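sanity check this:
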Amino acid sequence: MTRKLKIGLLGCGTVGRGLVELVGRNDALVRQRSGVELCITRILVRDLDKERHGVDRALLTSDPDKVLNNGCDLVVELVGGIEPARSFIERSLARGKHVVTANKALLALDGFSLMKAAEQQKVRLGFEASVCGGIPIIRALRDGLVGNNIQRLSGILNGTCNYILTRMTEDSVEFAAALREAQAKGFAEADPSLDIDGYDAAQKLKILTELAFSAQVGADAVQVEGIRDIAADDVQAAKELGFVIKHVAAAELNGDAVSLVCAPLLLPVAHQLAGIRDENNAVLIRGDAVGEMLFSGKGAGSLPSASAVLSDVVDIACHRGGFSMSRGGRVAAVAADCDSRHYLRVAVGSPSDIGSITTILERNGVGVARAAAVWARNDSKKHQVRVLTHACSRKAVETSRRDITESGIEKSKSIVLRVAD
């Protein structure tokens, strides 16, 4: 027996139009597979006069009350941002309506309390599209891996960073050129700061962490580093050492505390995340029963994200009522400073400065595995010292970096990257 689900849609931008397209295109398929007939009742937009191909203009309104109070069973929030999106979601939940959202910024800031509100109202809050677009990672953590204690998760969560680093690796171009190409192809915003400085990935990591470890983490829990200081020289050096540079977000549970880091890493070329190319995303999960599992695919875009929204809508339609989402506790965040190898690049005035640099490192307890003085890739008058350390703490490396700067050896900003084993 077919059951009708009435949807109120808030927002008709890239993902919203994709959802309208998918509901229209695959309506018969959804009905056949789930027994649910989807009906979009009203659509909230800012500009009623804007042309929206494939969208029925009769459904459009600029009044949110006409969406929320139009007898819909479920609200899809795709307006983005913090407000009024949070108010829309809270009003919908309070009225006993299920909600689906793709709003990673809001979920990273206040997702735990919204999930608790949904639980109290015995309705569901779906947010599959908020992390990694079309990859069903939220459902995997919530349902498929429900019998596992998650010990660690790591992943490539930002397609902009991954596209830039892929192009730097495969085309031997500098960061600025790779960024321009990403922008030209629609993989980077005009202002790419949120992506390239690591904060988009940090938001997604916080959402995954709260779900995987069933507790709330603080808003400032993630240690964040971006990729804008990585040069083609670093990418080439990584290749020569048998590594590839990727921007990786990782959360690991140690006792009752979790460490959360988003930063560029040197990954061994055989690592499961090393082969994730261009704008694709991936998440690597380690559970106590299943071991390691890799999820990968398109991380963004109109249809991949709309597909994730639609999957939440159908899942809610097929599973009435709410669900218990957490223990309701708070996991303490701890600084991640486990010993690991590090890559260090320092611009110097003379190749002989390599001796002073290795002396400073060893004085601070940082063992040197390999060190070389080389010409800078794009300037034959500049030298660099590149160092691969033995396993040591990040604190010891940063202390050494400070001492090198204060010694006057450093001619421009140095870079330190952790090496994943």
